């Protein structure tokens, strides 16, 4: 993994993206030069090639082809490429209409065929390489308790180009074993000797209690000096899952772990991004919003906009705006409740508004008023905030920044409807609060497009 603006991205995925941008640029530039028939058009051809590459990489990103935790086989990945290039073709055609300098002419089909073939070959080579042990990283876990079991589960979930193999766990004295017996390494060797014998690239410290005298500080130092990477479990989850785990989190990790950028420059960049993104989507989605309002009125004649008190930055309460997706008497008894799968309170129109996330579009006006950001933790109702704040450690940390229309938890986790779901989503929210940047906002925006297209996580 490499870190770009505080966010961890897959090194393999990043190199893949750059390589595919290069081959797409080359395919479109060559096609544009052939179409113009003149070497004097080199500059225009290069600009056309760059836009062609950016548009198609965006389309592939929106369909999840660069998502590092995507678990699917070669057939599944290949099935996503034609739709991605179809989206790219539509976007590129629109660009050629409004930008005269961007011109592939009648050779546009050739550029897409050539670029698509190159991407297919690249993906085929990547998946072939992934089947070997070249891209497998071998880990040793220090500890064999509950935290080690969670690290094992995370390592097992990782698939695709970058995979992990946990060669074993080193148990600590007086620690309850929670991992399979087959994964427990026999004592008797130093950690450095053990790592070298098993070819381990990294040691992950998954020990809950580090205050007893059995904690191998000196041996871990020898490993670090001997070239074996030593990583804390909290950092391992942050790096590999974009989560900050609350069940094993030490306050010192938040205090000394860096991040939490709330400088004037970050606030200025974020506010500018909020206004530009919200304005652009408002203009593009205006016909959709008008159609949604008409459908709501036709269905039951009730109010179009639903207002509800939510908790924002620093605990301030504001009214969030949404298209009404439930009946007018959804909480006739006055008792707040979470939405559930197949919730009978959701109307027929509301079902599709929620599935396609259209019900969230009026929140652009909350962004214009400065109550929300485009990207951030989702705002919750005061009733649930009070309950969750009592039951979940560090829950109030998410209120240190403005809530968002979309967020990391929304694109990585399904709809939350319980305390357990709230804990899972909080772990993504804490990661965002700690590592938020314009780069991460753009990645979340692209992932949001995928969520809208697939209807993932809606209720």
UniProtKB/TrEMBL annotation:
Membrane disposition: Multi-pass membrane protein
Residues annotated as signal peptide: none
Span of domain Bacterial sugar transferase: 270-453
Subcellular locations according to the entry: Membrane
Record Pfam families: Bac_transf
Entry keyword Transferase: yes
Domain of life: Bacteria
Transmembrane segments: 12-35, 47-66, 78-96, 108-126, 275-294
InterPro entries: Bact_transf, EPS_sugar_tfrase, Sugar_tfrase_EpsB_2
Gene Ontology CC annotation, any one: membrane
Alphabetically ordered keywords of this record: Membrane, Transferase, Transmembrane, Transmembrane helix
GO molecular function: phosphotransferase activity, for other substituted phosphate groups
Primary residence: membrane
Family (UniProt): Belongs to the bacterial sugar transferase family.
Protein name stated in the entry: Sugar transferase
Organism of origin: Pseudoduganella albidiflava
Taxonomic classification: Bacteria, Pseudomonadati, Pseudomonadota, Betaproteobacteria, Burkholderiales
């Amino acid at each position: 993994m490499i870190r770009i603006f505080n966010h961890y991205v897959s090194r393999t995925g990043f190199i893949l993206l750059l390589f595919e941008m290069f081959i797409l640029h080359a395919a479109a530039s060559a096609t544009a030069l052939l179409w113009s028939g003149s070497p004097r058009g080199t500059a225009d051809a290069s600009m056309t090639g760059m836009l062609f590459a950016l548009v198609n990489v965006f389309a592939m990103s929106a369909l999840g082809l660069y998502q590092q935790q995507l678990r699917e086989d070669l057939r599944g990945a290949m099935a996503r490429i034609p739709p991605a290039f179809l989206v790219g073709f539509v976007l590129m055609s629109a660009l050629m209409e409004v930008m005269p300098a961007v011109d592939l002419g009648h050779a546009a089909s050739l550029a897409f065929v050539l670029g698509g073939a190159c991407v297919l070959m690249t993906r085929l080579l990547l998946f072939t390489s992934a089947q070997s042990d070249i891209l497998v990283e071998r880990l040793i876990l220090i500890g064999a308790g509950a935290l080690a079991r969670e690290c094992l589960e995370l390592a097992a979930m990782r698939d695709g180009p970058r995979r992990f193999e946990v060669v074993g766990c080193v148990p600590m004295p007086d620690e309850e074993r929670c991992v399979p017996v087959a994964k427990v390494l026999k004592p008797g060797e130093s950690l450095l000797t053990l790592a070298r014998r098993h070819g381990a690239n990294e040691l992950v410290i998954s020990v809950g209690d580090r205050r007893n005298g059995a904690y191998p500080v000196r041996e871990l130092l020898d490993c670090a000096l001997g070239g074996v990477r030593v990583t804390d479990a909290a950092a391992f989850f942050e790096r590999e899952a974009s989560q900050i785990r609350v069940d094993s989190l030490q306050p010192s990790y938040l205090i000394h772990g860096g991040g939490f950028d709330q400088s004037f420059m970050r606030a200025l960049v974020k506010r500018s991004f909020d206004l530009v993104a919200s304005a652009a989507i408002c203009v593009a989605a205006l016909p959709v919003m008008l159609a949604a309002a008409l459908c709501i009125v036709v269905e039951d004649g009730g109010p179009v906009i639903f207002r509800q008190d939510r908790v924002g930055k620093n605990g301030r309460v504001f009214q969030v705006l949404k298209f009404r997706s439930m009946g007018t008497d959804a909480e006739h008894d006055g008792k707040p409740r979470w939405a559930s799968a197949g919730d009978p309170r959701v109307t027929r129109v509301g079902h599709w508004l929620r599935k396609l996330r259209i019900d969230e579009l009026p929140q652009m006006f909350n962004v214009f008023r400065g109550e929300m950001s485009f990207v951030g933790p989702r705002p919750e109702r005061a009733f649930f905030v009070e309950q969750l704040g009592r039951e979940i450690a560090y829950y109030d940390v998410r209120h240190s920044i403005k809530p968002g229309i979309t967020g990391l938890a929304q694109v990585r986790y399904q709809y939350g409807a319980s305390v357990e779901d709230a804990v899972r989503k909080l772990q993504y929210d804490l990661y965002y609060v700690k590592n938020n940047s314009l780069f991460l906002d753009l990645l979340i925006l692209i992932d949001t497009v995928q969520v809208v297209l697939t209807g993932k996580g809606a209720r």
